[in-house]
Every structure is written in C-alpha cells, then in structure tokens.
Amino acid sequence: MSELRDTPSSTMTFAPRPTGSPTTFAGERISYQRLIETELAALELAVHGIADVPNAVLARTLSIVLGAGGKRLRPALVLLASHGNPHASLERRIALATAAELLHTATLVHDDVIDLAASRRGSQTVNHVFGNTLAVLTGDYLFGKSGELVAGLGSPPIMSVFSWAVMELVKGEMLRPQLTNDLAETEREYVAKIRGKTAVLLAMACETGSMLDADDPQARSAMHAYGMSLGMAFQIIDDVLDFTATEAELGKPVGNDLRQGTVTLPSILFMREHPDDPTVRRVLTGGASDSETERAVDAVRHSQAIERSRQCAAKYVAEAVGHLATMPQTPARRALEALAEFVVIRHD
Hints:
The chain is mostly helical and 348 residues long. It has helices spanning 32-35, 37-49, 56-66, 73-81, 90-115, 126-130, 132-151, 156-174, 183-211, 217-244, 247-250, 256-259, 265-273, 279-284, 290-301, 304-323, 331-345; strands spanning 119-120, 123-124. It has a single domain (32-345), classed as Farnesyl Diphosphate Synthase (Orthogonal Bundle). The protein is 67% helix and 1% strand. The chain is globular, with a radius of gyration of 20 Å.
C-alpha cells in the first residue's frame, strides 16, 4: 500500500469500549487474552527470566527494561497464529513468542537512546539511569538473545523471516519523513516509515507463528498480510493517541511527536485541511515559541484530522480482518479479529 487513503466514517463501526477488560467485545467476539491466558502467563515467566544473568550490571539493566510490562501484542500474535498448530508444543510456542517480545523490547531501548527519552510507561529508561553506552549494549544483548531463541527452534525459514524483519526495521528507523510543500510525498514517506518501524514486526510475529511446526503456505501468506495491515493501523492509532491521551496515560507530554518535530498522520492531515494555518508547520521545523507549540498541539487535538486518522486506521483494520477470510472459523481467528478491532478503539 503506497499511501494512506481516505475512508468514509461509515466504513466500519465498533462496539463501545466495555467496562472491565479492554479486550473483550460484545456478541461472539472473544478476548484474545482469555484464549491464550495460560500461554501468556508462561510468557511472562520466560520474559522476566531473561534478566537472570550472572553479570550484575546487565541483570540490573535487563530488570528495568523487562520489568516495565507492556501490551505483549507481538508475542500474543505469535501465540494466536500458532494456536491451531497441533505439532507445535507449548515450549516452542513460548520460545518464539519470547523472541518476538525481546526483539521489540530491544528496539524500544535503542529508540529511547535516539530520542533521549527519560521515561517509558511511567518508569525511568535505562539510558536515563545508566547512560547511553549501557543502554545500547542492553539493547544489543536483547537482539542477540532473541536470535538465539529463534535459532534454537531449528527452522531456517523462521530464522529467515526473523532476519528479514530486523533488516526492514532498521531501514524503517532510518527513514525521516521530510516536511515539504508536497504533503502527498510527506505522507508516502510516513507510510514507508511506519511500515518498517511497526508493521514489519507484527507481520513477522504472525507469519512465524503460523509457520511453527506447520507447512501451510496459504495460512502463512494470510497471517503475514494480516500482521502488516494490523501494524499500520496500530501505529496510526499510536500517533492519534499522542494527541488525544492524557500525559498520565502516555508517560510523556501530550503531542510529544509534534513537539520533537516528528511528522505523523494527524499533523499531515491538519496541514492539508488548514493550508493557511502555519502554526503546525512552524513547530515541525523548529521555529515556534512555547506558546505557539501549545496552540498547535491543541489545534490538532481538536481538529477533524484526529477522526480522519482513525478512519485511515479503520481501513487497515478492515484489510487485516479481510486477510483472515480464507482461514477456518476457529477461536483463534475470532480472537485475531477482536484484536484488530481493539487496535482502533484502544485508549492507550
């Protein structure tokens, strides 16, 4: 998909967010977490066990990183994609799911170094506590450990997909969408970046999960496509939440991307809809005062750009669900559909 497309607001409708479990849906929709509750509990033990190393400094940095928690979305996708594989043991499924989570966590550690972030998920970052050198080394260790877990599965095809994802992620991180007068080109660059930054890892998790101790090319293709579309929607909603969530929910200032000069879809759509308002462009190019920055964040937050961004994300969710059409109607498929819908209505 070369660029985002406008989507009528009537394209998809979702049940209101229920009280209690944020991933439980009305009707026949089921909670993806409930379906794999046992596996997720085993995953938590495996992830926290990674910090049990003889090197005291590494043990401390890993404890900070791995103790911060998170959505566990990528390992959940591995577990759901492998749910119907009768030959895939729990131990091997957990190993692959843990590898996916460690790879994702490694990217976050390196992101925090690049962004000079002092906190994540309400906790201090490794680079803030120990400095950039130890943070980078911690991220490197997590990359290596994730690779070791995948190699231990003895599946060259899975290792190949895993390696592809790492290379695509690096290329995606190196992309920096440029703000020019051609907003269509800026949008295309944004799409390319979030594909590599986010979508590729979700596609990898889905694809490798479907491949584990199984040989179903159709399922593999469907899960890869599902993960790519889901990842695009997930990152767009992340960029929306950067404006609409509270500072307490975000663990950082509202509108942080805009404040740091990072071009995201809500800002692009705002500038397209308000060509005579230079405030957002001035913030992105570093020429705005503090008061102008606050006005720009507030303007985007209360503009139609937020709803239009959600509509674009809903389009990708519809694509993701559509990719599951060739799969049998199983609890795992229904959980994947519910997970996709949750991506659009989540609040954090």
